[in-house]
Specification:
Number of strands: 12
CATH superfamily of the largest domain: Rod shape-determining protein MreC, domain 1
Structural class: alpha+beta
Distance between the termini: 124 Å
Strand order of the largest sheet: 1-2-5-4-3-12
Helix content: 40-55%
Largest sheet: 6 strands, antiparallel, barrel
Radius of gyration: 43 Å
CATH topology of the largest domain: Thrombin, subunit H
CATH class of the largest domain: Mainly Beta
Strand content: 25-35%
Order of helices and strands: HHEEEEEEEHEHEEEEH
Number of domains: 2
Length: 298
Amino acid sequence: MRRIHIKKLTSRHLLIIFISISAVLMGLSLLSDTTRGPFRYLAGYTVVPMQKGFNKLGGWASDITRNFHTVKELQEENEKLQQQIDDLTVENEELALNRKELTRLEEMFKLDKSYGDYKKIGARVIASNTSNWFNSFTINKGSKDGIKVDMNVMAGSGLVGIVTETGPNWAKVRSIIDDANYVSGMMLSTGEKCMVRGDLKLAVNGMMRFEDLPVSKENKEKDEDKVEIEDGEQVVTSYISNKYLQGILIGYVNEIKTDKSGLTRYGTITPAADFSDLQDVLVITKTKSEALKEESKK
């Protein structure tokens, strides 16, 4: 059986056909206007409706073209607006970061002024341990900058740790919230001494523990846990500490209780620094031993 090959009409062929039909219709339209009789009658039933159809088709095509341009313009406008939104978002993020940086610098400035008797050097935290809390961390200043082991480190409103190791341009700091660390503390209003220790369980809630706070005679007589010491009491480093300089704020008493023996009290402290977000610190460029030697000479 012979196969019948059907050639596909190309756009060129369609254009030729369309032009031909249009020419015929134009000719018929002219003839219908100049002639009379049956041909004009026939043209009224054929050419005129077809002309109307082509006019509608042309109007429809024109509407589509206008709509297409309108949609394209809207898309371009939408892209411009989206770009403006993206630019404003980036700008707002930069402003937020700048405000946060300014807040940190203001806090560092206030901290520096609060402990004006001590010479200090600023440093940035460049690494920390794997936990969410800065039990230990590394700063970007080291022995070349005068950093030594046992120098006290501050941030926020007070003490954050002590230098344990140094390199040429880095130093490691152990935080006071680390469970291997302890600080000899003192209640600021009464001068009563206690031991402040790190506690990993409490650190999750941003707390520390203090203990061995003596029970005063007033407490023994009245059998009360809180007579002289109240929530919010400031706890600072005491003069008997062998590594920490005296009078640096450790934190604020959160709660206080008397142990079973009835002889000492214990409780929790809210640290003076936020150990979940340490970025900048101040290192006091004098160790406790150096300070004691200077005092003995005087």
